[in-house]
Amino acid sequence: MDVQIWTYIIVGLSFALYISIALWTRANSTKEFYVAGGGVSPLANGMATAADWMSAASFISMAGIISFAGYDGSVYLMGWTGGYVLLALLLAPYLRKFGKFTVPDFIGERYYSNVARTVAVICALFVSFTYVAGQMRGVGIVFSRFLEVDINTGVIIGMFIVLFYAVLGGMKGITYTQVAQYVILIFAYMVPAIFISIQLTGNPVPQLGFGGTLAAEPGVYLLDKLDGLNRELGFTEYTDGSKALIDVFAITFALMIGTAGLPHVIVRFFTVPKVRDARSSAGYALLFIAILYTTAPAIAAFARTNLIQTVSNQPYAAMPEWFKKWETTQLIKFEDKNTDGLIQYVADKDKNELKIDNDIMVLANPEIAKLPNWVIALVAAGGLAAALSTAAGLLLVISAAISHDLLKKQLMPKITEKQELLAARSASVFAVVIAGYFGINPPGFVAAVVALAFGLAAASFFPAIILGIFYKRMNKEGAVAGMVGGLLLMIYYMLAFKFNAFGETTPKDWWLGISPEGFGTVAMFANFFISIVISAFTPPPPVRVQHLTESIRYPKGAKAASGHH
Amino acid sequence: MKTSEETEHLRQYWRRNLRILAVLLGIWLLVSCFLSIFFVKELNAYRLGGFKLGFWFAQQGSIYIFLALIVIYVRQMNKLDKEFDVDEK
Lengths: 565, 89
Hints:
- The complex is a heterodimer of chains A (565) and B (89).
- Chain A is an all-alpha fold and 565 residues long.
- Chain A has helices spanning 3-24, 30-35, 42-53, 56-69, 74-98, 103-110, 114-146, 151-201, 206-209, 222-232, 245-261, 263-266, 275-311, 321-327, 360-363, 365-368, 373-411, 417-440, 446-470, 476-497, 519-536, 543-551, and strands spanning 332-334, 354-356.
- Helices cover 70% and strands 1% of the residues of chain A.
- Chain A has a two-stranded antiparallel ribbon.
- Chain B is mainly alpha-helical.
- In chain B, helix 1 (4-38) packs antiparallel against helix 3.
- The chains are: A mainly alpha (565), B mainly alpha (89).
- At the A-B interface, helix 5, helix 10, helix 11 and helix 13 of A face helix 1, strand 2 and helix 3 of B.
């Protein structure tokens, strides 16, 4: 059977599965809608968090980026896993004990202020919308490549699917759908990785094959071979970075802290029954994420070795079928500058004849390794699962921020549970439409901003939550000033150095040599500093709040998450 | 209101909790910041099979260690909760 039919079958089956789960687990109360009723097992929550967390970028782009960046790609690996240590140790158990529905809810209660709550809502919307726009675009791209429909049609199909299970099922529907999506995406990621590892190194475990010797050249380690190939072509050695260490550090930490500050990840810890479960579900989440994240660098190294050996100095006429096929999508471009009919792939820009998009590495992998057609279809289904699960999680944060934190808690406190549920559903419809709009008309900066969404999360939420738990004296004045200050500083730096809004800039102009992607680390420290200084000069929080802060430190007496007190 | 004895008991629990956090986060910082970033060149002089050591920490080792840290944390805290009788029944 050809790839097309296989793709329709496998993608169709996976969508049917998501929709049946949504029908079966639809939410009937706000508690089910916001926190899945609070009865999710830590294992299921770990899987759902992993799927929620791993987006189209993790699935499709990350291995490709690492493949070209080598050591420098480590920032994503460490950044996006190290954040879970912070989540497990510093946030999850305390937020679970606190037991509310949303992150702005915590900020609003802990800082006894609707101003703080509103600032948190704005931060949550800002982070979630920038992030979700990228996901919807990802859905469109995967559809257009594998189902050969228009990108816009792809986005619209994706919108309907997400709409269906996010609106109907709320957090409850999303959670169990995400469990299914995790299983599909990890299977789709691992199958080609295992095959390629066997072909290249004879070891079925990609994590080990990565450090093993080549099947074709016994005694030669894969990474040494790759370093050598890179060196010959004028690139930096694969295992050696070309970024400044200070910037590697800043980016890694911005990603870690951003991960721990992303509202759609934090909110998952409200869905488990006990404080103990919140701790262990962060562990399960990282375990499930680590399976993909330790495989990605292996795929990256395999793909780069394969690529160089297949194309470098080879006649263009002899290129395999996948090369020609991806040329038609413009993701591979060959221009024979010296008209010798051979492909020169070198670091020198003037002599290089080949341009390759990062995304090829995962998407074309099965074809490069000559795997059967059903594996290619499976990768399509996996990419869609990754994009849809993340989009759904973000939409829920947006709808909860609007219906719970703006309407119920501020504008219309008298609305009934039923009305709030209706508002939550309407808000998610509204959010899907906006996300779809950005998916169809992506503002040029979407791709750039997705990475920066982490910087924004790091600059705004993280310090407010940490101080709210660990510093009893922390008051509302400090927290609000810190969040606003951190966010503004981050936005200023992005505008100035990423979008050149105040005149052209070069990396030489960066403060301390830190790139806009890494600046979240600096903005976070600024937030901590502003918060602590301002709170020292303003009155301490009320005694009631001090008791609240104290009580979240002890697991005993944790009640199920609730919107009331 | 809690008696002062109870307060002292809880304060001790919190102090022990913070100590566990300090140790685990110290390892977290050491692995990610120093072994994988600032001393990567020095460590790359050593090897772990086909991997240069610093590179291995950055792309594989750090992730395994992060996972181990959470597992240890969960175990330690469950024990501590029981010891201080603040666990959920």
